[in-house]
Every structure is written in structure tokens, then in C-alpha cells.
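Predict structure. Chain length: 151.
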Amino acid sequence: MDRKHSLNAFLAHYFPTFIGAFFLACFAVSASISLASSTYFRGDPERAKYSFLIALVLSLLLALSHFFMIRGRSWGVRAIVVFYLVCLFIVLPTYGYRPHPVAYVTGLLFPLLGLLLLNSKRHREMRSKLVEIRHQRERILQSAKASRPRR
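Prediction complete.
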């Protein structure tokens, strides 16, 4: 019962921050793909198919990087930061193609808000606790291997 209570407390405290960063990353990727497709590849007749495939691959990589962050791996967070920065740097030069102002502003706003959320105190606390949980898991596995009799 105590474990469930602590899990519920952990989720209640950190889940909004986690899911906010995840959705901001999804929105940033979709906004950057949309702006890049409508500006850089305006004349390509098959841009919808390529945009779909790129969105599929990037969403899979984004989900995997969040999964590894949850598992306590610090490189998962670095991959998420790279996603945000790539989205930002893809959207920035589209200004020369005169995109719709709302699309351009949201394309800039999502990655910047995501980076801000990743740098928030609560998100950093959550990541440090997830790393602690990973270290506890590794210690438990090592002690279980050490106590197992050899044949």
C-alpha cells in the first residue's frame, strides 16, 4: 500500500510536467514538419507522403527518447533537447517564405516553451528522481545476482 501511495504521489507531482513536455515536443515536431513542407517543398507533388513518413519516424524516435528518460537515462533528455532545437532551427528560416504568421509563431513557440519546461525545477527534480530509481534498480539486480548460487 505504501508503494502505491508513493507512486500516486510521484505521478500527481510530476506527471503534468512530463506530459506537457511530451505534448509540446509533439506539437513542435508537427509544426516544423508542416512549415517545412509548405515552404521548402512547396512544389513537390508527393510532399504529403514524405511529411507523413517523416512524422512517423520522428514521433517514434521522440517516444523512445521519452521512454529512455523515464528509465533514468540522461541521454534521453539530450535527444529531446535536440528535437526541440532542430524544430526551432527548421522553423526559423521559413520566415523568408512568408508563412502564415500564426503558423510561424506557433512553430517558434512550441519548441521554446518545451525547452523552458525541460529546464524547469520540477522537470529537473523528476529526472533526478528517475535516475535515483534506475540506480536502485541496478543495485537490486546486482545483489540478486550476487546472492544467486552458482552451478
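Summary: The radius of gyration is 20 Å.
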